[in-house]
């Protein structure tokens, strides 16, 4: 079963090549190839998940070179759920993108490259290899953001490219420092070697700072989030769904991986300054992201800033570094991906059907697109943390962790973040359901014929702008957001062995 | 106490949740839609009622749905305290559903499907609150109740309703955050959040500072929905909702979920013993006393009937909290008994206000002189219920207040008894003029009500007060009997009451329909109120029936409290906690 671990990375990458090759002969083969690849990917992810569930940590030595010299792929309680998330969301977005666009073989080739990169970051057990996959992910994401029609997509893609590359460079620099300090790149090996070098070594401290800062750029924590709102807002709707659900999520996973598996909680205990810095950066991000979200008038941009805030919570969970907080961080990582991806998908459905893209356009929306409006309401409330949706469960664990560790400031910020989130979510819900009477009935912009989503071919005029599949994805996300709330204790038991290792219990 | 594994608690929660899709699906056929509501209401009260004999015999019914977060299970458990709230909410839902049909159709309201669906959701979550077996499960339903009620508050879709909805969400979610924080602290300090009659053992030995903080957060958080001052101001604003909502949710289910939460915290999380050790009972009782007196004073100056009732609710809810803060056996019995007592009386009053609104589109008390001719049965029911509010014997309010009085004297805190008596006087002061003018005055010949509408300070203030601010504005306008200023007398020291300030003072009846927005002319028609008979000609039986049923409940609780179920349930609660034998 260990082959599934490497196949989960290889299959999407190979699919990308196949998609490109088939494109030489067939015009529209991209979607089919991508779907097959993603279906296989989901199967592989489930196999990996099942074997972690039954047998614990799974390791694969690439090319038969034994670690620490060779590159290792690792699936454990932390990476397996993220892998399943990557696979499932990529498949769902394909269903969505078939009608919503963009289309063309080039798009699906890059799409599969992104999926392969994400799976690679998730599974790798080697820091330099992680850099490689981060770059694959990044380059694919820049291209996807820029695949929109408008010039603003291109500019957003460029901005993302520049800032993202800076982040990646910092990460690479950090890898270099760690290598100079220890002479190894394998994560498991690094964790012991770094301890041997000593946590007060400047090389080690610099490595930590550079690695984590580089990743936080990719996570888009305040104040290094500046690429993210533009990228989310101006990307085609399908791409917004994919990158909002996965790219920052996997980067945040990488932060957890670097902190827990490479530097370990002992490092955090030995260097309180590192922990304090992370905790406060996260707390500031929670507040600033929400504050910025509240003042937005465009829905996608508001959701983008909301991510800045929510990822602050996840980084806070990593920095708090107790078992409860780690569970909460993982639950919120997965839960937020479902919630935010679902919200972007719903926003895309609404835009395609009614042309509504701003808060004012959403007035009276419940009458025009009841299903999408209902999904936005459910997902939004989930994001606020109304139980029993998954947003509450993550918050509960993180708050318990914060209280246990005595980081009272974070505990207060996390609990108060409910109100901050409510501030922007309630505005949308109120517009949708209770503003029908007084505000004139939304925009009358026609959408047919105008491809807001771009891509190689515009939506044909005789085709409905929204397919049942797109609506199904939105509804599925809403259902999953509530259902996952009850599955969280399962995640905890899955994570148990990994946590025992991390926290040395 | 034997625990009986049973699906009945879960079914009682889900029966109205299951009705929601049916209600939504039959939006084209109103009669079928309302049939689903009635069916769910009857099934719910039957399910809850079927557990009464067992619970009185000492059993508890438990549905364990497994682990939810960490070591906390998602568990529903019906004990005596939960049954008290559950039985009350589900029983009164039947009555309110009938009334809703009459009210919503009488006003030809929009979005009735959403209204009935949200109502069913509110009841499902309210029963969830009642039957939750630990703080986390309680919190889940508590937050869902907030969400389910929001569409009812903002139902009108006017700017005023939206503002009230925003305020409602902001206040109650703030309370929710406090409750969640308190829950996390309890979990951290005691390792469990499961309710235990008489208190969680682990909390008694926890760090007192943490325990006090947890208590303050929990009581304060639940206190938002219980409308404890200063977190009360969402409630008067929420009166913009349709009257059945004000009646069942904002006098019974929602506000009492807050009171119920405080009761759970006091009796089953901390327990009277630990509360005494921590010394947190007295501050709670003090806040409650401040609230019940201040709200009564503010109620005096409210001319809008529903707003006056809202302040009366704020005041009466604090009777219950006071009982829980005083902590003696009889005080607890009295406080808990006031939950059903106040429910029956206040539901009657709101139903009357709604019937008056539907029939005559009158919302302001100053326009109700002589209305007893037009709506005799309604106003008789109103008189009975308001007498009960003041604590007149043979009515529900007397019995609970009696227990509260002797309870606070027993506990050596007679000052609270004095406050209760003072509040009773104030109740008479703001209710009696309504009843008096309804029967003994006519629109063209009515006396001034100096206590309610005159300038503070009486004739001395009147002499030198011309044009010196808001206080005399109300008084001057009122003098000719046709003004429609809100009678707010903005000297009440309630800065958050900005809503009143928006209302036109110039006597524009058109905009004064409490945001119901139908533009009807309120007040008596030309030539005074016509006389209607005593046989129901004043309204439909859809509304009169529920009014009389609720009033009958209030009388039954007062005349034969021992035979009425609620006193037995309350005594069982107190016995479980160990404060009475």
Helix content of chain B: 55-70%
Report on the biggest sheet of chain B: 3 strands, mixed
Report the C-alpha radius of gyration of chain A, rounded: 22 Å
Mean pLDDT of chain A: 89
**DSSP summary: helix tally of chain B:** 24
Low-confidence stretches of chain B: 465-520
H and E string of chain B: EHHHEEHHHHHHHHHHHHHHHHHHHHH
Biggest chain-to-chain interface with counts: A-B, 33 and 34 residues
Nearest-integer average pLDDT of chain B: 83
Question: Characteristics of this structure?
Answer:
heterodimer; A: 505 residues; mainly alpha; two-stranded antiparallel sheet; 18 helices; B: 581 residues; three-stranded mixed beta sheet; globular
Describe this structure as you would to a colleague.
The complex is a heterodimer of chains A (505) and B (581). Helices cover 76% and strands 2% of the residues of chain A. Chain A has 505 residues and is mainly α. A two-stranded antiparallel sheet of chain A has the order 1-2. Chain A is globular. Chain A starts with a helix and ends with a helix. Residues 437-461 of chain A have low confidence and may be disordered. Chain B is built from 24 helices and 3 strands. Chains A and B meet through α16, α17 and α18 of A and β2, α6 and α7 of B.
Offer a quick outline of the entry:
The complex is a heterodimer of chains A (505) and B (581). Chain A is mainly alpha-helical. Helix content of chain A is 76%, strand content 2%.
């Amino acid at each position: 079963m260990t082959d599934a671990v490497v196949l989960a990375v290889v299959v999407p990458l190979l699919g990308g090549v196949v998609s490109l090759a088939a494109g030489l002969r067939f015009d529209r083969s991209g979607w089919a190839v991508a779907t097959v690849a993603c279906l296989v990917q989901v199967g592989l992810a489930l196999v990996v998940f099942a074997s972690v569930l039954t047998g614990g940590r799974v390791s694969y030595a690439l090319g038969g070179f034994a670690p620490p010299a060779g590159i290792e792929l690792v699936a454990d309680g932390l990476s397996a759920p993220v892998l399943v998330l990557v696979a499932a969301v990529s498949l769902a977005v394909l269903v969505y993108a078939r009608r919503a666009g963009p289309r063309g073989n080039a798009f699906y080739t890059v799409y599969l490259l992104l999926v392969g990169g994400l799976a690679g970051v998730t599974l790798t057990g080697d820091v330099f290899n992680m850099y490689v996959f981060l770059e694959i992910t990044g380059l694919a994401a820049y291209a996807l953001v820029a695949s929109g029609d408008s010039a603003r997509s291109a500019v957003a893609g460029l901005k993302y490219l520049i800032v993202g590359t800076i982040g990646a460079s910092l990460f690479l620099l950090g890898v270099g420092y760690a290598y100079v300090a220890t002479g190894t790149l394998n994560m498991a090996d690094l964790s012991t070697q770094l301890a041997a070098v000593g946590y007060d070594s400047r090389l080690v401290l610099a490595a930590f700072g550079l690695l984590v800062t580089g990743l936080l750029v990719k996570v888009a924590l305040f104040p290094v989030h500046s690429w993210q709102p533009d990228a989310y807002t101006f990307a085609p709707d399908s791409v917004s769904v994919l990158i909002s659900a996965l790219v920052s999520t996997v980067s945040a996973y990488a932060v957890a991986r670097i902190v827990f598996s490479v530097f370990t909680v002992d490092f955090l205990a030995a260097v309180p300054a590192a922990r304090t810095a992370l905790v406060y950066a996260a707390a500031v991000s929670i507040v600033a992201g929400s504050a910025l979200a509240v003042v937005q008038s465009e829905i996608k941009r508001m959701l983008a800033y909301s991510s800045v805030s929510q990822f602050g919570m996840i980084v806070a969970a990593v920095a708090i570094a107790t078992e409860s907080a780690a569970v909460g961080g993982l639950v919120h990582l997965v839960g937020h991906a479902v919630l935010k991806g679902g919200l972007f998908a719903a926003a895309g459905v609404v835009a395609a059907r009614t042309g509504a893209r701003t808060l004012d356009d959403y007035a009276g929306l419940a009458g025009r697109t009841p299903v999408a409006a209902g999904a936005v309401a459910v997902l939004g409330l989930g994001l606020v943390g109304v139980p029993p949706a998954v947003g509450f469960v993550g918050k509960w664990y993180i708050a318990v962790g914060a209280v246990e560790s005595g980081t009272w400031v974070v505990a207060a910020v996390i609990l108060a973040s409910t109100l901050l989130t409510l501030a922007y979510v309630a505005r949308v819900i109120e517009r949708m359901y209770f503003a029908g009477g007084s505000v004139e009935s939304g925009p009358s912009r026609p959408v047919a014929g105008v491809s807001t989503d771009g891509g190689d071919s515009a939506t044909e005029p005789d085709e409905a702008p929204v397919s049942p599949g797109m609506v199904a994805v939105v509804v599925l996300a809403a259902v999953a957001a509530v259902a996952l709330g009850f599955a969280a204790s399962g995640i905890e038991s899955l994570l148990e062995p990994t946590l025992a290792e991390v926290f040395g219990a | 106490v034997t625990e009986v594994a049973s699906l009945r608690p879960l079914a009682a929660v889900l029966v109205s949740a299951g009705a929601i899709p049916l209600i939504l699906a039959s939006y084209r056929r109103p009669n079928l839609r309302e049939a689903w509501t009635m069916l769910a209401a009857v099934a719910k009260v039957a399910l809850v009622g079927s557990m009464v004999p067992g619970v009185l015999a000492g059993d508890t019914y438990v549905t364990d749905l497994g682990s939810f977060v960490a070591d906390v299970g998602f568990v529903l458990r019906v004990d005596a305290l939960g049954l008290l709230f559950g039985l009350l909410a589900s029983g009164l839902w039947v009555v309110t559903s009938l009334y809703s049909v009459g009210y919503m159709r009488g006003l030809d309201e929009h979005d009735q499907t959403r209204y009935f669906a949200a109502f069913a959701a509110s009841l499902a979550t309210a029963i969830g609150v009642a039957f939750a077996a630990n703080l986390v499960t309680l919190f889940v339903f508590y937050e869902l109740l907030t969400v389910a009620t929001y569409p009812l508050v903002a139902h009108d879709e006017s700017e005023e309703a939206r503002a009230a909805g925003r305020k409602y969400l902001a206040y109650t979610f703030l309370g929710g955050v406090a409750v969640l924080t308190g829950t996390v602290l309890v979990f951290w300090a005691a390792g469990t959040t499961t309710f235990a009659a008489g208190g969680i053992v682990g909390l008694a030995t926890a760090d007192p500072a943490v325990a006090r903080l947890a208590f303050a957060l929990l009581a304060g958080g639940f206190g938002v929905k219980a409308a404890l001052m200063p977190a009360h101001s969402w409630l008067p604003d929420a009166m913009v909702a349709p009257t059945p909502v004000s009646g069942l949710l904002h006098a019974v289910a929602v506000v009492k979920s807050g009171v119920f939460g405080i009761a759970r915290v006091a009796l089953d999380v901390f327990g009277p013993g630990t509360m005494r050790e921590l010394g947190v009972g007295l501050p709670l009782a003090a806040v409650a006393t401040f609230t019940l007196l201040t709200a009564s004073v503010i109620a005096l100056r409210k001319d809008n009937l529903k707003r006056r009732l809202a302040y009366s609710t704020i005041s009466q809810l604090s009777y219950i909290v006071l009982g829980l803060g005083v902590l003696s056996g009889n005080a607890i019995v009295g406080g808990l008994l006031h939950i059903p007592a106040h429910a029956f009386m206040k539901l009657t009053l709101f139903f009357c206000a709604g019937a008056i609104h539907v029939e005559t589109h009158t919302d302001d008390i100053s326009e109700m002189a002589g209305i007893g001719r037009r709506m005799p049965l309604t106003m008789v029911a109103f008189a009975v219920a308001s007498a009960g509010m003041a604590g007149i014997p043979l009515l529900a309010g007397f019995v609970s207040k009696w227990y509260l009085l002797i309870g606070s004297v027993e506990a050596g805190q007679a000052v609270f008894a004095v406050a209760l008596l003072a509040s009773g006087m104030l109740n008479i002061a703001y209710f009696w003029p309504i009843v008096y003018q309804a029967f003994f005055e006519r629109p063209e010949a009515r006396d001034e009500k100096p206590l309610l509408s005159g300038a503070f300070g009486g004739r001395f203030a009147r002499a030198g007060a011309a044009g010196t601010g808001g206080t005399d504005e109300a008084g001057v306008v009122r003098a000719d009997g046709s003004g429609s200023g809100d009678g707010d007398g903005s000297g009440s020291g309630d800065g958050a009451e900005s809503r009143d300030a928006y209302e036109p003072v110039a006597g524009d009846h058109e905009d004064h329909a409490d945001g119901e927005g139908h533009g009807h002319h309120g007040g008596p028609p030309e030539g005074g109120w016509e006389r209607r008979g005593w046989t129901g000609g004043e309204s439909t039986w859809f509304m009169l029936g529920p009014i009389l049923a609720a009033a009958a409940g209030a009388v039954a609780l007062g005349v034969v409290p021992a035979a009425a179920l609620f006193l037995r349930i309350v005594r069982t609660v107190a016995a479980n906690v160990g404060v009475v034998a």
